[in-house]
Every structure is written in C-alpha cells, then in structure tokens.
Amino acid sequence: MKGLCILGAGGTTKDLLDLIEWKNRETSSEDRWRCLGILDDDRALHGREYAGVPVLGGLADATSLDADICFAFAIGSPRTVGKRKMIFERLALDRRRFPSFIHPKAVVEKGAAIGFGTIIFPGVVVSGSATLGPFSILLANSVVNHDAVLGEFVCLASGVCVSGDVAIGDGVYIGANASLRDGVRIGEDTLIGLGSVVVSSIPSGCTAYGVPARIRDGSG
User: Fold this and answer.
1) Which residues does the chain have with pLDDT short of 50?
2) Checking DSSP bridges between strand 179-180 and strand 161-162, what pairing results, if any?
3) Which CATH number fits the domain 100-210, given the four candidates 3.90.79.10, 2.160.10.10, 3.30.70.260, 2.60.210.10?
4) pLDDT for position 145
5) Alpha carbon of 36 to those of 51, 91, 114, 130, 158: distances in Å?
6) DSSP track, the chain
7) Binding residue per annotation — 76?
8) Which of 132, 133, 152, 134 lies closest to 143, judged by CA?
9) Quick one: which of 6, 34, 103, 172 is 20 to 30 A from 14 by CA?
10) Which fold has domain 2-74?
11) Distances (CA, A) of 85 to 46, 48, 54, 73, 182
C-alpha cells in the first residue's frame, strides 16, 4: 500500500477520497493508496479531522514528509483562479511525487495526453486526441472533445463541455455546466461562470459569464 498526502481541505478533497476508495476496490493490495493525512493552511483545521482524515498541518509541511510519500493537489475552486500554480511553485515539490488519479467510471480514450497530478472524476469523457496539462482537475461528467488542449492547473467543474479544438490557458476555472464552442481560446487565469455558453475567445485574467459569455466587472 502506498502512502498519500492530500494538499487542500475542501470539496475536491472529499470527492478525491471517494475516488481513491473506488480505485482501491479494484486494485491489488500493493497498488492501493492509504491517505495518511491532509495539509491545509487553515489553522482552525490543524490537529482535527476533515472527512475522516487527520489534518497534519499547513501546506509548507509537505517538504518535511518522507520522500516516498506521494501527493495529490486537491486545491481547486473559483476562489483559487490564478493561485494554484503559485501555491505549487512555492512548495517546490518534485512533480513526480504527484500521480494522476482517474476514476474507474471515467472514460479516457487511448492516446489522450495526461499530465502529472491530474485528477479525473466519474462520468468524465476525454477524447483520444485531447491534451490535459499537469494538475488538471476534471469534476464529474465533464467532457473534453477532440484536439482540445488544457494548460496547467485548469479546473473543469461538473458537467462542463469543452468542444473540439478548444485551447484553455494555465490556471483557468470553468464553472459547472458551462459549454465552450469549437475552436475558442481561453486566456490564462480566467474564470468562466457556471452555466455560461462561450462562443468567442476570452482573454487572460478575466471573469466572464452569461449566455453568451461576456467579460464582466471591468476585468480584462
């Protein structure tokens, strides 16, 4: 059994624990994961349990853990747009310590390129010609179609549909049930609101939402 520490205490962590339980049912004992603890910078959680798992300390404590312990980067919400990559770089951990986790009920076609630390939840479909950058999070029932490219630290909330030949920059968060038209480009560190329909490209550093999605609040 392999040791795992999860970075971040939030909804994604709860879903990841469910995913790990599913995977452990279907693998031999030596390939199963044992979650040793969670690290989060909320001091109110330290020394307590979150979702039945002990919170061992802050994120910086990851550097003091044994070298054979792996990590899962489960920090991903609209509040962390543009911050996930900075958090990771501050920790300076070896990317090879971040395995990808793919739920047994997800469909990832042969040929799809999956980066380090990617987490894929049940019901997700990824085309064989798609590329998922390192530390992508694809929540339940999201779809990534042919030739789409996701950058690093991208989060797709539940039910997102990424059409063919879409390019999504680093650090983007796309809200639940949003749809992206074929060929659009989303700049890095942009937030797309839930239920939005993106029919044209959106630049970096924006908040966009609506049907069709438009840049809001003076961003961009």
Assistant:
1) none
2) parallel
3) 2.160.10.10
4) 98
5) 13, 19, 25, 33, 27
6) -EEEEEE--SHHHHHHHHHHHHHHHTS-GGG-EEEEEEE-S-GGGTTSEETTEEEEE-GGGGGGS-TT-EEEE---SGGGTTTHHHHHHHHT--GGG---EE-TTSEE-TT-EE-TT-EE-TT-EE-TT-EE-TT-EE-TT-EE-TT-EE-TT-EE-TT-EE-TT-EE-TT-EE-TT-EE-TT-EE-TT-EE-TT-EE-S-B-TT-EEETTTTEE-TT--
7) yes
8) 132
9) 172
10) Rossmann fold (3.40.50)
11) 23, 27, 25, 10, 27
**Catalytic center residues:** 146
Residue 158 confidence (pLDDT): 98
Domain coordinates in residue numbering, the chain? 2-74, 100-210
The model's pTM is: 0.94
CB 183 within 8 A of CB 165: yes
* Alpha carbon distance 142, 177 (integer Å): 8
Q: What length does the chain have?
A: 220
Could you read off the pLDDT of 54-71 as tens digits, one per residue? 999 999 999 999 999 999
Of 196, 176, 198, which is closest to residue 187 (Cα–Cα)? 198
